[in-house]
Amino acid sequence: MAFAIPSLFAFFLFALLAATQNSYQKKPKNEPKVFKGVKNGCKLINCTDGRTCGIRVGLAKFGNRNFEKFDFPKCITNETELNMNTDNDGNAHIVPNGPGCKMIKCSVGYQCQVRISISKLGNLPYAQSIGTFPQCVGPNVSFQSSSSTIENGPGCDQLPTKCDEGTKCVTAVGIAKYGNLPWSQFFSPFCT
Question: Which key words tag this protein in UniProt (predicted)?
Answer without folding.
Answer: Signal
